[in-house]
Design brief:
The chain has about 70 residues and is of the alpha+beta class. The chain is built from 2 helices and 4 strands, in the order E-E-E-H-E-H. The chain has a domain of about 35 residues. The strands form 2 sheets. The chain has a two-stranded antiparallel sheet. A two-stranded antiparallel ribbon has the order 3-4. Bound molecules: FE2/S2 (inorganic) cluster. InterPro entries: FeS-contain_CDGSH-typ, MitoNEET_CISD.
Length: about 70
Amino acid sequence: MAEHSTEEKNGYLKTWVTLHPGEKVSLCRCFKSKKFPLCDGTHKLEGTHGPVSIQVTPCEEDKKQTD
Ligand code: FES
């Protein structure tokens, strides 16, 4: 499952999202999500920007390890 953490550095919040091969995540771009940085669908009610969806495609080595 995707993991995320947020830290403050030089007065700015910086969020890290870690994905594993085969995982997919939708990241919030409207800043209204209660699950930020993950999209919870709130953009449909009051936002103008939908999420950005990212998927990590497993490489051949990853596929061999799971076979
Ligand atoms: S809740 Fe912000 S983009 Fe979906």
